[in-house]
Amino acid sequence: MADLSNETQTTTPDGADIIQVNHLTVGYGSNIVLKDLNFSVKRGEIFVILGGSGCGKSSLLKNMIGLYDPPTGQVFIEGKDIVTADGAERQEILTRFGVMYQQGALFGSMNLLENVRLFLEEYTDLTPDEMSLIARCKLDLVGLLPFESFMPSEISGGMQKRAAIARAMALDPDILFLDEPSAGLDPITSAELDQTILSISRNLGITFVVVTHELPSIFTIADRVIMLDKDSKGIIAEGKPQWLRDHSDIPLVRQFFNRGAHAATVPTTPSSPAH
Amino acid sequence: MSETTLPVDVADSVVAAADLQANGALARLILSGHFNAHTLGNGLWTSTRTAQTEWLGDTGNGKTLSVDLAAVSYLDGAGIAFLIDLQHAQEAAGGKLTLLNLDKRYDPLLAQYQPINNLFPAPNTDHHTSKSTLIRLGQGTESLINDARNQMVFVGQLASALGWAARNPKQVRWNDFVNVAVEAGVAALPIVSLVAFLIGVILAFQSAIGLKQFGAETFVANLVSLSIFRELGPLMTAILFAGRSSAAFAAEIGTMTVNNEVDALVTGGIDPIRFLVLPRLLAGILVAPILSLFSDLIGIFSASLTMLAYQVPFVTFYEAVLKTIHVNDIMSGLTKSLLFGLIVAGVGCLRGMQTGTGAAAVGLSATRAVVTSLILIVMVDGIFAYISYKTGF
After folding, report:
1. ipTM > 0.90 (yes/no)
2. I need a surface site. Which of A9, A75, A271, B173 has the fewest CB within 10 A?
3. Residue B276's domain spans which residues?
């Protein structure tokens, strides 16, 4: 194509809030996992939700994408509250974002191309050839074009996650939610996935909300993070990961970023025998 | 040329339009508005491509299409795919495409798909290539032979496991056995009762209608009781048992296979046949005859109720039943039920163990379990009928 530049355009967060979470409570009945959460995600940024196991990261994500109804609070996606929206309004909000689930959640009875095409078939009136071309473009973006006719069971876990990202991008959403994208992947595959996320974010300007506790991924991709804590049931830190690692005065945050063990579980070092 | 609007609640200003102005070997396509999957999906993409094809004619050699994007306010992935499609069509016809006034922010997006030919695979690139009928016939036959072999191996494994259970009764997982027996047996009582009751009513009515013509309503009890004890009771119970429990066993063990739980047993040195299959098999052997006997009694009871409508009292009906039915008839039905229970439980477990990968494989296993169970039940029933005819059992 004429006059194409190969240099990579860098899209940076423009400062406007694309997601706003107000006074959100996460949990069921009397089992409250997180309470009174307030934070916002800026358009174009890679926003990471982190915290220890069982602190409610994935539950928070499921509240943000409307899978669970929170006991209290609001989640505004591009100005519309997904908690109270229903019918056509909710359907319209759902087309504004894509989700990659922890295990990929590809439909096992469809090949990769059909998986990516599915949402185009449901939401648009494009012809089959037009939908296939768009789906191939998405698979090409995540490096899986040669595998378009493979079934999910025929590809590796890392490839399944990349295919799930391609499927989540089928309708060109403004936001992508990723639940534990690096979980269970080897370091090389995990790093490749991080580069895919960075490339999509910087080139397409898509906003990412990523749930993870993989430190290398956090330092590679995150523009901003919030850290959740099981004991205080809330956000204990917010900011750039490097800054939090080096300057946070909260011991738990420093422990997390420096891979420190919990004080109570640190084994005492046996004293060296005298020589 | 054409214009389209978004089908969803989006501002009225969000529209897309395309206008192709051709002048001999040169054409100018003026695009304006918001290009995404929705605006393109209302025929805009198709009509633009049709106009391009008509203009290109039989040969597009030397023809240049200039796409003017000055009035394009937004272009997402679908919009980029649209431009790529135009470029591909142009180049395939020997022509050329140039983009004019494209916002610089879209350059990296377009650059990612170069060369675009990769996006248009040649026919038959599917690695699941189509096969000739002969190959498919051969593969189908091989699959059938393998399946028969697997079933025979499984029967051997079951026999071995039953022998082991007889030698080591304390090591059998009796808790699992009880749980399965409760789920497959006690929980099945309502549906077995309902079906047996209705079968008894239907059978009594149908028999009475025929026999009444000869004034022989009193013989309904003989006919119905023999049919139920020897044939319908065991058969209907087995079919219900297959639909409920064979599918459940296949789905349960299939899910465990998909989740590598069966692998965990194997690598932990635990025989999955003894751990998973044996309790279900023993429960099937125990539960099927009991359910069958229960079904027989309900069927006879409902038939006796029905015959009240023909002025045949309870006492008369039951006396006729007792005169007709011998221990041999009951034992014949129960023996069949025991075999049916063995088949249904065994097939359910076998199909579960054979499950492939993914959620669809579990569904397929459950279906195969029910279908195989039903086929084997009918086959065994036929063999039994022949043996009964020859031996009088």
Report:
1. no
2. A271
3. 156-391
